[in-house]
Amino acid sequence: MITSPTAGFLTREETSDVALLAFNSSVAQGCCPTGSARGSVRPGRGHLWQGRLLTGAGLTLLPWLGYLAGTLPPAEAAAWVALDALEAIALLTAGSRLLRADPRHRAPAAAAAVLLLADACIDLATAAPGPELAVAVAMAAAAELPLAALCAALAARPARGSRERA
């Protein structure tokens, strides 16, 4: 509570306290984004494992890019490496932002969802019948589609503390 030695007037210290209260009240209510550079925001348990999962998936794609570049014909390699590199960038960006509790994780998560879905569809459409198709189905079912669903859910979920306006 702010008290003043003189009726109706605030001291210099009280004025700065009021200014701090006015600034911090919107932050405490979740209305304003807070920077994690100062460590003021910590990720929740859910965001922590989701951020680790997305970051791990993005890092896993990096050696895969080298494998694709070295084993596919040049024209195919360029297309697949570009697609998978974009996936890796989107996953690493979304994952690292989730780990920092940065609310800007939604756009890269949405991009990753679209890219992963496109990757799964193209893999399934271009796979030759037999073992190649079986691998494409397994990759889509075990990795690409579940990861795309997680990214889509992260992109669609409102930020913590935000209120929808009617």
Assembly state: single chain
Which ranges are low-confidence, i.e. pLDDT below 50, for 5 or more consecutive residues? 1-7, 15-40
Biggest sheet character: none
Percentage of β-strand residues: under 5%
The portion of residues assigned to helices is: over 70%
Overall pLDDT score: 80
Q: Could you tell me the radius of gyration in angstroms?
A: 23 Å
Q: What is the succession of H and E elements?
A: HHHHH
- List the total number of helices: 5
Distance between the termini: 35 Å
Estimated structural class: mainly alpha
Q: What is the total tally of β strands?
A: 0
**Shape estimate:** elongated
Could you explain how this protein is built, in words?
- With 166 residues, the chain is mainly alpha-helical.
- The chain contains five helices and no strands.
- It has helices at residues 12-28, 45-71, 74-99, 106-126, 131-156.
- Helix 2 (45-71) packs antiparallel against helix 3 (74-99).
- The two termini are 35 Å apart.
Brief write-up:
The protein has 166 residues and is an all-alpha fold. The chain contains five helices and no strands.
Detail the topology: elements first, then pairings.
Layout: H1 12-28, H2 45-71, H3 74-99, H4 106-126, H5 131-156
Sum up the structure in keywords.
single chain, mainly alpha, 5 helices, disordered N terminus
